[in-house]
Amino acid sequence: MGKRPLDILNNALGNPVIIKLKGERSFRGTLEGYDIHMNLVLDNAEELSDTENEKKMGTVVVRGDNVVYISP
Amino acid sequence: MGKRPLDILNNALGNPVIIKLKGERSFRGTLEGYDIHMNLVLDNAEELSDTENEKKMGTVVVRGDNVVYISP
Amino acid sequence: MGKRPLDILNNALGNPVIIKLKGERSFRGTLEGYDIHMNLVLDNAEELSDTENEKKMGTVVVRGDNVVYISP
Amino acid sequence: MGKRPLDILNNALGNPVIIKLKGERSFRGTLEGYDIHMNLVLDNAEELSDTENEKKMGTVVVRGDNVVYISP
Amino acid sequence: MGKRPLDILNNALGNPVIIKLKGERSFRGTLEGYDIHMNLVLDNAEELSDTENEKKMGTVVVRGDNVVYISP
Amino acid sequence: MGKRPLDILNNALGNPVIIKLKGERSFRGTLEGYDIHMNLVLDNAEELSDTENEKKMGTVVVRGDNVVYISP
Amino acid sequence: MGKRPLDILNNALGNPVIIKLKGERSFRGTLEGYDIHMNLVLDNAEELSDTENEKKMGTVVVRGDNVVYISP
């Protein structure tokens, strides 16, 4: 299976990531945790938007079924 | 797995949270409970809206599959 | 896990609730039952609508995957 | 759990019901069977429509994931 | 549970059925098989359309999650 | 259960099939494999389109939840 | 079952692939890993777009439920 997707997330813990959600929403932040559903914990999270300023959000727990991709 | 997403919810019990749902609906309230599906219990819940006044709702049970993110 | 979501439903049995469904549909009625999928039984149910008069429906069984939130 | 949703369906066997499906489709008919997924069997089913005449359909097996609610 | 939905499908084997799919697609054909997911096998299948001529398709295997209803 | 849907796929191995996906996408190709989720392997696959020329794609692995139907 | 879909992914490890996601998003990159949900790891990933320039993204973890097809 090569590098398993969840192992890549594990290697990214403590590091900045971009996550893209369904419906064009994106976050940038530090990946602090995840689980097998790809529920994610981001710290220092900012919501990115083409049309608005960035919105600083502190900690966010993202439900995994919204995730399109995660880029460490 | 770092900080597990449900542990973050556990730490937020009794504290104010913002939850964002699919379809642009948002709530602010006190997180009083959750389960493994991310079904949530909010107390003193208010529905937030860009276009309308806030709507005070008391207690709400949110079905987890609607959740995009939770910000403690 | 604090107050579990299904316990809140259990406490609401026999009492009036508002339920909001996906697609902006809402019901008001007496919560008479539920199961672990959040399938719900309402008695004296009325469908609420911004654009039409309320529609009285007697008993309704709502499939849980339509539920956004339940407010006791 | 109060009256369980599937028990309400069981009590409705042999009786007329209205079922509302996602996407505004509705049926009226006699509930002849169901299973735990809320797959349903209707007899003497008619599809209801705001814009067209009723369409008589005899027996229909409805896949449960389409169901919004069932009203006995 | 009355007549179970899959039993109705079993009784319809070898007989003509109409199946309605999500997104307004319909097929007419002979039901030759099914499984517990309501995946279906139709023979002599024709795709029905309000706007186009019928399209003859021979055998089709329909994935069950597309099914709205089956009418024997 | 009559002819089981996955048996029909098994009989079609090595033969040309048309597959229709959700969102009006279609492929033509040789069915080289499948699994219980209806994930499919096509060889010599061509994407069909009403509005564009056919696009030759070699081998494609299609995730089963996109499939509407498969016609051998 | 012929060639199993996940075996095709296994054979593609270390090689360039195109992946098409729901909502018309596409990536090109080197397949570095996958799991049984078709969660994927791409290296040297580029997001392809008809309307914008390609966006170079390094490593991406794609959640499997977004995948339409993978072409090695």
Would you write up a description of this structure?
The structure is a homoheptamer of 72-residue chains. Chain A is mostly beta strands and 72 residues long. The first copy, chain A, has a single domain (5-71), classed as Roll (SH3 type barrels), CATH 2.30.30.100. Helices cover 10% and strands 51% of the residues of chain A. Chain A has 1 helix and 5 strands, in the order αβββββ. Chain A has a 5-stranded antiparallel β-sheet, with no helix packed on it. In chain A, β3 and β4 (55-62) form a beta hairpin. The radius of gyration of chain A is 12 Å and the shape is globular. The two termini of chain A are 20 Å apart. The model of chain A has no long low-confidence stretch (mean pLDDT 93). At the E-F interface, β2, β3 and β4 of E face α1 and β5 of F.
Low-confidence stretches of chain A: none
Average pLDDT value of chain A? Answer: 93
Assembly type of the shown chains?
homoheptamer
Q: Portion of residues in helices of chain A?
A: under 10%
> In CATH's first tier, which class of chain A applies?
Mainly Beta
Tell me the number of structural domains of chain A. Answer: 1
Report the span from N to C terminus of chain A.
Answer: 20 Å
Proper CATH architecture of chain A: Roll
Give the percentage of residues in beta strands of chain A.
over 45%
Biggest β-sheet: strands ordered side by side in the sheet of chain A: 4-3-2-1-5
The CATH topology of chain A turns out to be: SH3 type barrels
| Shape descriptor of chain A | globular
Task: Specify the biggest β-sheet of chain A.
Answer: 5 strands, antiparallel
Order of helices and strands of chain A: HEEEEE
Most extensive interface: pair and counts? A-B, 24 and 19 residues
Number of strands of chain A: 5
| Number of H/I helices of chain A | 1
Rg of chain A computed from alpha carbons, rounded to a whole number of angstroms: 12 Å
